[in-house]
Amino acid sequence: MKLTRRELLEAVVAGAVSAALPRSAHAQTTQKRELAVAQGGDIAKFDPHFSTASNDVRVSFNLFDNLTSRHPDGKLYPGLATEWGLQGQSTWAFKLRQGVKWHNGDPFSSADVKSSIERTYDASMKTMVATVFTTIDRIETPDPFSVVIHTKKPDPLLPARLAFYGGQIVPKKYLESVGPDTFNAKPVGTGPVRFVSWVKDDRLVLEANPDYWGGKPDFDRMIMRAIPETAPRVAALLKGEVDIITQLPPDQEDRVTANSSTRLSGALYAGLYVLGVNSKRPPLDNPLVKQALSLAIDREAIVKELWRGRGIVPSQPISKGDNYFDPSLPPLAYNPKEARERLKKAGYKGEEIYIETTIAYVAQDKAMSEAIAAMWKDVGVNVKVEVIEYSVRAQKSREKSFKGLWWGDPTSTLGDPDGMMWRLLAPGGIYDYWRDPKFDELGNAARFSVDDKFRGECYRDMTKIFLENFPWLPIIQPYEDYGLHKYVEWTPNPNQQFEIRRFNFKFRRA
Amino acid sequence: MASSIPASVPTDAPLWAGLARPRISGRRVPWLTMVGVGFVLLVAVIAAAAPWLAPADPLRQALRGRLSPPTLDGTDGRAHLFGTDHLGRDVLSRVIYGSRVSLMVGVCAVLIGGLLGSTLGILAGFSSGRVDAVIMTLADAQLAFPFILLAIGIIAVLGPSFPTLIVVIGLSGWVSYARILRSQVLSLRSREFVEAIQALGGSVMRVILRHVVPNVLSSIVVVATLELARSIVLEATLSFLGLGIQPPTPSWGGMIQEGRDYLDSAWWIATFPGVVLMLTSVVVSRTGDGLRDLLDPTLRGE
Amino acid sequence: MRGFLPFIGQRIVRALIALWLVSTVVFVVMRLSGDPVPLLLPPDAPTSEILRVRRDLGLDQPLPVQYGVFLRNILHGDFGRSIHFREPAVSVVRGYLGATLELGLTAFVLATLVAVPIGLLSAMKRNSLLDHASMAVALIGQSAPTFFLGILFILLLSLKADLFPTSGRGDWRNLVLPAFTLGAFAMASIARLTRSAVLEVLGADYIRTARAKGMSEMWVVAKHTLKNAAIPIVTITGLQFGTLLGGAVVTETVFSWPGIGRLAVQSIYNRDYPVVQCTVFIAALLFILINFAVDLVYGLLDPRIRAH
Questions:
Q1: Which of A195, B43, B80, C199 is the most interior residue, by most CB within 10 Å?
Q2: Whole-angstrom distance, CA of residue A238 vs CA of residue A248
Q3: What is the pTM of this model?
Q4: Chain C residues touching chain A at CB-CB below 8 Å
């Protein structure tokens, strides 16, 4: 068949045009109106005060708002509060946003703020966030859009505390009328998404809140799925079944970066992955032994090989990015020879040292345990790795009955050592296996001081005490990575808060 | 009825037929069954000789050489015929050492199950209606139960350890032995049987020793072989679920679990142990079938 | 065994006893496993709170009392409240049951539809290539570990060939790999046993008579073989459905299928007694009911039982 001149011309033009367009233009934009996310575990609770698990916080953080909001850049921004300031040493005053409505139409006011915050530390409620606002003395609501919070002692970090879990504001009227169980089954908040339906172990359906004060998010619906195993979760991303996946382990990253339509995006975790130490159990009660254990770990190799470079070796119990992080401290050293010396000096006679590891509670926990165990064996430590279930870990945590070392991922909730090192290692905290009177004195002094220089010195001294006694063995400050399609414009938040509000999330449209 | 097992070869048979294929109950053992038995012995030898056969220490990590594909010249200058796993350990060595776990757990579990089952079967056969009914109802209940759940439950409670494992797996298989022993005992006890023997002028004891015991033994051998295959698979399943042999000791099921996340990037980690596991299970099962066809086809109905 | 009614009656009694035994074992095992209460509360909860929650859940009573309460409640269909999900255990299990039934039924139907004809054909064409090949495959299906079969399927058919999704429940495509994995054992067993049952029938005298009379092979098969082989085939097939429930635990785990098998495993790890008890009870009940139905059909089919 002979082509007419016209057809030939059209073909040439079409060819030229498509050659001019970038090849992957189609993969990089979308017309989607539904956001699908897959995370590593199912939701247990929608009530934001009854769970701090990351799989729940990702959802509750978007069903609800906080007074203040920490953006991925690390700074505090207005949330439900538009302005705040100190009114005297121990008093903070907040001006609330007007015209905000709850998902069921009720108007938002200061009464909600007061009842919500008081609920967290109400002894009869038994919330999971009871220790977040222990510095608060009383809350006053002079008018529907002002809140005045009096703290027991000067608390410079209160606005930061309000930005994290525990600070999600829940509706007074709705909660009182339906009770906590129905509230948990049909949650109502002020956030950018509304609850639609939930099928356990399958999917959670949320819809965009068109009246959201921060602007309607760039989708009509959001689906949250739970895919606990990593390979299927990555496969779901690569096949286009979901747009974003969380908890992407370094070993799977090649699959995501090699695919032309997906990419990885990570934030340096605002916190540390550590091995908690039961310092009450010999031989872990000897600081020399703990120092030796720390010296025997080749953290460089762990970061470079197991984590493919996606992380940094910690140098102190303060995470990089926090206030008072001391960049002059060297990364924790690897010196097996010195480790043997210290073990000898400590009089270590080959007593068993246990690592009780979970599987995928902290990313790569089992693999790191086995790697560290081999490193310790090399310096003569009699180490045993035992795998325990998450439920058993929770039990041991509560009973403080760990046999030796275990994995934790302390989060720096305030961007400040008060929110991590002090919060978790203080007397009565979940890592309370070791005490030093000077350490405690410094921690308390720094919490209630408004003198920046003084606080810096306290934390510097606390770090020194920490590095001699190692109540934790910091292992890595990793990048917590996510996999996304290239048409997703979104920045991860270092503290695991999954931010899909308008200022942070958008589909790239043609 | 089984008799003793002499090897006898007709003199007019071709030369290769003379290669000692023993006869059992008058029939020659098929090639496949002999190969099967040979395979089991081979696995036992490999397991015993693991320290000499394995090219590397199965526990030696080499983080820099992790996730390497099968190669003759790896990052550390050594050959890794089955590749390395996520901690840089040689997969071939781990598969070889894994045979120890599978065989040890399998054999011990079979022994425990066999002892328990035989005892209960004999008891059921000899005792009055009550005890017999209880034992048989227990057997029914066991079959009603998704046993894997019980296994998981018990191990989650007691913590995974070698003794727990063999007891649990052993417990899962007692029923077959019990049935055999019970029916043998019952038929022994039947008056017709005893009367017939005495009428023929023989001693019941001698009959038991010369005929009944070998019969029972051959049935038990068949069941034990099939149970061995099942126990190996059950151990691997439990290790896959994290409830079997604990790290860093290599076990086939555990390796498959570790390799699950790397199926399409480092497929060798899960595939080699899996194929070896499948091969072992299939061959041992087939051997059991072959032995059954040979020794006691009446077991077919089980 | 004479008479239909005594036959059924005995079966019912045994079934009830089995059910009771199963529940008791589960009760004992779960109670031995330790305290689930710390899982529900924040790590720094005071002891008074632990005691209060324990009291609320009835966990502070002595074991025999708890057992008595447990039995009484079962008779009312009450398995307590799930500790993890905070709703009645029965409704939790009910929510997951549909997925397992879907998977189980599909696996079973698939297994039967594939295995019976193959078994039949293999018996009829004994020692042919088809016979050897299908029996070899059946051997593998029966002895291969279910979890590894599933993983192989995922590797070859999902990851490499991209024909099916790797996990989860969705449309019919999600059902294929798990159903084949779960059904493999049943398929293999049914094929082998069908083959033997048909072989036995084919070797019987009346068949030879029919052949000698000149009837065609197909006719012989259709009229006599199937009718007589039906009893063992039905029995075997029915029994396999029951064992599918056990296999579901592993298959659902490998494929992240949201059914009661996976629920049971997770609940054991979470020490969620009520859900574990309920799941195991319901699984055992299903198994017993199915076996019962099989016995019923067997009793109806087998003239020796029907006759008085």
A1: B80
A2: 13
A3: 0.81
A4: 34-36, 38-39, 41-45, 49, 84-86, 92, 95-96, 158-159, 165-169, 256, 258, 262-263, 269-271
